[in-house]
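User:
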Amino acid sequence: MNEGATETMLEQQKQTQLEGIRQKVFMDRYSLKDASGQPLEFYPEHLWARVARGIAAVEPTEEKRTHWEKRFYEALSDFQFVPGGRILAGAGSGHQVTFYNCMPPDQEVLTADGYRPISEIKIGDLVVTHRNRLRPVVHKFERETEETLYIIRPKKMGYDDLRVTGDHKVYVVRSEWVNKHKSRDGLHLQQEPDWIPAKE
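Assistant: Predicted structure:
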């Protein structure tokens, strides 16, 4: 699927109309902009086409690029699969960015067999998720980078330091004392779990 075919397909397809906060987030964070900051993408379909083209661009032949661009677009369409923000913002943008967030090779992760360095993890190995469930590794990516590593030292948890690149998302619980009724009896601890980039 070359760029012309993508454009033809987009012309024939109904464009998804986003509203409110969804539209604002899309336009602010993910829509491709020109050098002056003006948006070049106005609908998710434009973004899906760009991302599919960008990801498929690594294939060695035009035939394979066309095949995988179509497959990626189908996976992305109607929000069936939503990759991370770095991929949505960077793939096919023409900017030299990395689509993956990283940990150093000796960073240990919890697996079904205990803690192991991430460099030893293989596809199919079971790792513990943020919800304390075992899930198989479905993809492995390795690269060299000179990005800054952020060190997170969990308090009162008994875990070792976590070292990740700045855009790697971490699951945190933000706690705040809230006085709901403006009285001593109304004071309670409000806790909200959230995924935030390590650099925040």
